[in-house]
Design a protein that fits this description.
- This protein has a 7-stranded antiparallel beta sheet, sandwiched between helices.
- It is built from 3 helices and 7 strands, in the order αββββαβββα.
- It has helices spanning 3-12, 71-86, 130-150; strands spanning 30-39, 42-49, 54-58, 63-64, 92-93, 104-111, 114-121.
- It has one domain (3-150).
- The chain is α+β, with helices and mostly antiparallel strands.
């Protein structure tokens, strides 16, 4: 469990200048987003950064770093970031970013103006809720990460 929360916390403590990321036409406000999913047995965090980095961490200590090197993951992660950018008004300014409880989804947007966050009980999430769009886009990233994990290792 030691590595995953530390890596998540490291990102949450960074600034876009630490990674040489600047606003773009597609992402004028958001430079990274975190999809935190609380489950009965712990939590999973998907992190997408505007530089193409994509990682997944679990509270049990598992994870995947560097998945953004693969188009199959980078494309849905970029779509996730654009979705977060489009619903930014649905998130509120945040100083604390705890992991969600079971059956909760927390969305964290790291913006050039600070951190924004929203938490929703998944049992109450409605299709019309802007956070549902982020949930679906995040699930697409999770699917791409799972498919990447299931690929047989390349032969060298």
């Amino acid at each position: 469990m030691s590595g995953a929360p530390d890596l998540r916390a490291n990102l949450l403590g960074m600034s876009p200048s630490d990674l040489s990321i600047e606003p773009t036409e597609e992402l004028p406000h958001v430079w990274a987003a975190v999809f935190d999913w609380g489950m009965r047995e712990g939590s999973a965090s998907i992190i997408a950064v505007a530089d193409g980095s994509v990682s997944m961490y679990t509270s049990s200590g598992g994870g995947m770093i560097g998945a953004g090197e693969h188009d199959s993951v980078r494309v849905p992660a970029a779509r996730f970031l654009r979705t977060v950018e489009s619903i930014l008004d649905s998130l509120t300014a945040a100083t604390d970013t705890p992991l969600p409880s079971a059956n909760e989804f927390a969305l964290i947007a790291l913006t050039y103006d600070g951190t924004r966050r929203a938490v929703v009980d998944l049992r109450l999430l409605q299709r019309a809720d802007p956070l549902a769009r982020a949930w679906i886009a995040g699930q697409d990233v999770i699917t791409a990460l799972r498919e990447l994990q299931e690929q047989p290792p390349a032969r060298g």
